[in-house]
Amino acid sequence: MRRKILITGGSSGIGLALANRLSIHHDVMVTGSRPQTDITEPFSSDLIYVQASQSEPETAVKTIAEALLKAGWVKLDNVVLNAGTGFAVKDAIDDIGRLRETMDINLTATILLSRTLYPWLAKAGGTLSIVGSVAHKGQALFPAYAASKGALNAFARALRSEWQSRVAVQILHLGPTRTDMHAKAGHDPGRLRSIFMRPSSMAAMMEFAMASKRSPLTLSFRRYASAGSRLGRNL
Amino acid sequence: MRALVTGGSAGLGQALCDALLADGFQVVNLDCDPPKVISEAGYLYCDLSSREDVDKALDALTAQAGFDLVIFNAGISATGKFEDISTASHARIIAVNAEAPMVLCAALMKFGKINHGGNIGFVSSLSHFTGYPGAASYAASKDALAVYARAVRKTWQRKFNIKVTAIFPGPLKTDHAARHSPEGADAEKRMTPDEAALLILRDIKKGRAHSILGGAAKKLLFWGKLRLNR
């Protein structure tokens, strides 16, 4: 069965890798902050792209809802709220502007999208997958980022027990992945980068995780090494 | 000794201000409402949901002498079906409960307005350990503070000798708790704000990483943890 899938933060990195992967068998709409012409990574021609920057949560939510209506989508089987940003800081003291941006993109926009997309998800009995981070327990290098991801963890937990059988809610705590996230965050992981997951491997694990509907799940080297992603079921 | 308390005009914040005053602190209360009762604490207006207001308050605060003790206590809630709560209310909860305290704290730190040897407290919620269906955005905002406190604690202690405490109160005998607790919840068993304030200040001054109030809360925490680990 072809599913209707919405993925935020899909103009690069993990979001785009997941969108490309899922677009082979499903209808996928992706959102991103940049214009489509600025996308540099391979972008499947089957994808529907919506430009909506989550640094303005209210506007982004409206744009995305309008795009769904325009495309004639009346239900969503899967929503992956993946868009996120973060900044490395010195002495654990965040810059104010960046702290606000992090909260807008990672937390507020995710909550508002969950709220607004509910009717679409409920109609399909769908799954809402929220992308967290292994930093969700706190990290001095990215305090505001860690706080936003910790907040998403609590959010997903509360919403999962509230929505129960109507819409499955899950949080996926992703480990470090070879995307441009670290460069954008102003952090050079150095040689460690060579052991980071490839976005395509992460996308494979995410599809498996989405099909399982379990929560919370940590998707990192260890799960990859246990072959879960390669032998895993598809959506 | 100077102290800053957000949301000090009512409830737990008011009790914290009173306890600090009794302890000999000079206290500044940052709140959007004027104090409910006349207090010796200095009052500074700020609607924490407005970034403009927060920036203005920061201008005023950073023009003053530094603080020895800062408690980020202000918080709002919205309970009900998640999808029935307006997007504006959800955004407001995150702005007031999570973003504003983190912004205020980071800015005060940046300008060196929290004195070395000082203490910072973030009022999170017991929901950090137990979950809180029916208040998902509130739970999110309070976990943001718990995680933020954990993220900065070691670095600030090592570099600035500033200790950070995450505070996890359960429902207290306050108007806020009365508005947002389930029907039929027994308010008699709850701690008064004054009792809670004393325990919280004790833990903050000791520089504890966590302040968890009361035996019932600790029991709840234990079961909550078991549930989470399952």
Task: Describe it.
The complex is a heterodimer of chains A (235) and B (230). The model of chain A has no long low-confidence stretch (mean pLDDT 94). Chain A has 235 residues and is an alpha/beta fold. Chain A has nine helices and seven strands; from the N terminus they run E-H-E-E-H-E-H-H-E-H-E-H-H-E-H-H. Chain A has helices spanning 13-22, 57-70, 96-116, 118-124, 143-163, 181-184, 199-212, 221-225, 228-231, and strands spanning 4-7, 27-32, 48-51, 78-81, 127-133, 168-174, 217-219. A seven-stranded parallel β-sheet of chain A has the order 3-2-1-4-5-6-7, sandwiched between helices. Chain A has one domain (4-231): NAD(P)-binding Rossmann-like Domain (Rossmann fold, 3-Layer(aba) Sandwich), CATH 3.40.50.720. Helix content of chain A is 43%, strand content 15%. The longest helix of chain A is centred in the middle third of the chain and has 21 residues, at 96-116. Chain B is an alpha/beta fold and 230 residues long. Chain B has one domain (2-229): NAD(P)-binding Rossmann-like Domain (Rossmann fold). Chain B is 48% helix and 17% strand. Chain B contains eight helices and seven strands, in the order E-H-E-E-H-E-H-E-H-H-E-H-H-E-H. Chain B has helices at 11-22, 51-62, 87-110, 127-130, 136-160, 175-180, 193-205, 215-229; strands at residues 2-6, 26-31, 42-45, 67-72, 114-123, 163-168, 210-212. A seven-stranded parallel β-sheet of chain B has the order 3-2-1-4-5-6-7, sandwiched between helices. In chain B, helix 2 (51-62) runs parallel beside helix 3 and helix 3 packs parallel to helix 5. The model of chain B has no long low-confidence stretch (mean pLDDT 92). At the A-B interface, helix 2, helix 3 and helix 5 of A face helix 3 and helix 5 of B.
